[in-house]
What we know:
The chain is an alpha+beta fold. Helices cover about 25% and strands about 20% of the residues. It has eight helices and ten strands. The protein has helices at about 1-10, 125-130, 150-155, 160-165, 175-185, 200-220, 230-235, 270, and strands spanning about 15-20, 45-50, 50-55, 65-70, 75-80, 90-100, 105-110, 115-120, 255, 265. A hairpin with an 8-residue loop joins strand 9 (about 255) and strand 10 (about 265). Helix 5 packs across helix 6 (about 200-220). The radius of gyration is 20 Å and the shape is globular. It starts with a helix and ends in a 7-residue tail after the last helix. Zinc ion binds next to helix 8. Zinc ion binds near residues 247, 249, 250 and 267.
Amino acid sequence: VxxxxxxxxxxxxxxxxxxxxxxxxxxxxxxxxxxxELEGRVIRSAARYxxxxxxxVGDADGGELHLVVSLGRAGWVVWTEPRSSxxxxxxxxxxxxxxxxxxxxxIDQADWLSLGLSVVESxxxxxxxxxxxxxxxxxxxxxxxFSREAFDAVVSARRKQVKALxxxxxxxxxxxxxxxxxxxxVARISPVVHASALSEEERxxxxxxxxxxxADAYAARQGxxxxxxxxxKKASMRVHGxxxxxxxxxxxxxLDIPGTKGGAQxxxxxxxxxxxxx
Length: 278
Ligand SMILES: [Zn+2]
């Protein structure tokens, strides 16, 4: 999401929104401002808040205005160059046409609508942004700072399975299902152990893995076209989505985490002392 936001910031900033189209009306979560209110406005910047992308379209005359795209489980933004054919076959939720003829298409590839759009005067008006915890991939204007102290305070206090805690956006912003599997594999920690039961040494490994996995992923995705980011991310996974394959560290077999219907994975040899969960 951070690479996507970087690309939008670099390429959409300064462009005027000339037309909007809300294809799936129920995606718009706010009533005060219609999507069409963006028309005629200039995109000033793109910013990321956890898994939300914020386009600032405020101007001196019209006052502050933002389009927040809450990407959800399967939302994304596709960029169509001028004079090329639009997003053939993609599940488009909304479109913004820009003054150079390019089109930003907001899509959602889930079976149900997981993405949300908000047109607001401040991104902090979006409740799930206001509640975001510290963001390991860098500070922003709304969330509290991420630090080792903040990490230790939360992790040592919570009697909650560590994988679930990592994915809780109010605790740490921006970590989803896939990267929580990868982080725990790198840290060699069971996904189901309670956070508060981790030793100081395990907390050290977990902290290093949170910072390292996200920073490595961000570095590795630099320059990847935004329509290929999701596929590149999937291909880079060590255990997530690799049920039955060999663990790249120990060669053991990667298993599903029980209760996730095949949606999350771990390596028993690396993470649970060789004993499968269940
Ligand atoms: Zn392993």
